[in-house]
Design goal:
With 125 residues, the protein is α+β, with helices and mostly antiparallel strands. It contains 3 helices and 7 strands; from the N terminus they run ααβββββββα.
């Protein structure tokens, strides 16, 4: 009986360790045109092109691990890097925001807001 329970427990652990097989290893064009969501993906070099909440066409590249954002994500507008954000298990850890030639530490939402306002100001001039 102990061998059966041990074998069952070992099998469950092995299944959890190999569960990445349930995730897609490539993005579909539909997934690439949405905001940077990793749900259902396990991709080393994921990419997204979408229009953000501020009306800016943003390009993002990053890594999806077991359906979660994990690692560095780079945000670009017109081929200019706006921010780089580190995610761990789908949670934002830190963001380096590039604003007016300086790099400041803030959260991603605040960074994108600063860029949207700066771009809006330059367009209105």
């Amino acid at each position: 009986m102990k061998k059966i329970v041990f074998s069952l427990a070992l099998s469950l652990v092995a299944m959890q360790l190999t569960s990445c097989g349930n995730y897609a290893r490539q993005q579909t064009p539909e997934q690439m045109s949405t905001p940077f969501i990793c749900e259902g993906l396990h991709v080393k070099r994921a990419q997204w092109d979408f229009v953000d909440d501020y009306g800016l066409k943003i390009h993002v590249d990053g890594r999806c691990h077991s359906g979660q954002r994990h690692g560095q994500f780079n945000f670009f507008y017109n081929n200019r890097q706006l921010a780089k954000t580190k995610f761990v298990n789908d949670r934002e850890v830190k963001t380096a925001c590039k604003v007016q030639g300086r790099e400041i530490s803030t959260n991603l939402e605040n960074c994108m807001n600063m860029h949207a306002n700066a771009i809006k100001d330059t367009k209105s001039k």
